[in-house]
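Follow-up to my earlier ticket, as requested here are the two runs.
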Amino acid sequence: MNGYFITGIAAGLLGIAIGAGGAYTYENRELLAEQAAHAKDNEQHTSDLNAISKAALDAEQRAIDAHNEAEAAISAADAQITKEKDAHETDNRNYRAALAAGTERVRVAVTNCSAAGGNDATGTPAAAGVGNGAAAYADLDRAVAERVFRVAGDDDNEISKVKALQAYVCAIRPATPGCK
């Protein structure tokens, strides 16, 4: 073998080694730059995710606070309405019992009526002064008065239900028209 041939092969191998080393160094720099950019992207994504997580946590806390406030408002409204309802029921029951016992009377103003017996012996109305437009008063029958107050109690119960519903809506949605 010729000396030039061996020198040529050695030079070729040296060229390949230098080329491979240069390529390795170039690619290694590119890889390091890409890794640095990737690390910067990861840091930005981590920062973004932390901000999103914090915003979600804050929103959740506000929702919990709003829920607790609404729950407290509903509880207070329920206690108030229950107290009023119980007081109304007690008053109504006591008044109906007094009507039934005859210790209370319901008086109504009347301007035109006649006595239950009709006319007196002369044929004129038996209730003098009534029927001529002058004001007079009459007592309702006990049973009628008691029924009237039973109906009024039922109406009061329905009004209490509407008030409770309105208080609930105002506690849940304070911006609803009619809420304080």
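Run two:
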Amino acid sequence: MPDPYRDQSASRRRPSSFGRRALRALLWTVLVLSAAANSVASLSGMSTPVRLAFGVTAALCLLALVVDSARGRRRR
């Protein structure tokens, strides 16, 4: 009888779908770009709404990545 508490082998795990991997790659790209743009906007003295827009975009991407990671852990 298999042990239900033992981690499954790599061959028995469900592979990640292409769409999910593409979404994660897009989220990471947008996160890095918005964080960089936020840094440049802060250093160059741009207006507050511009900096807030970049910051909120970065925060939302980070939140989406955390939610995606938590969902992935729950499925295994």
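The only thing I checked on run two: Residues 29 and 61 are 9 Å apart (CA to CA). Let me know what else you need.
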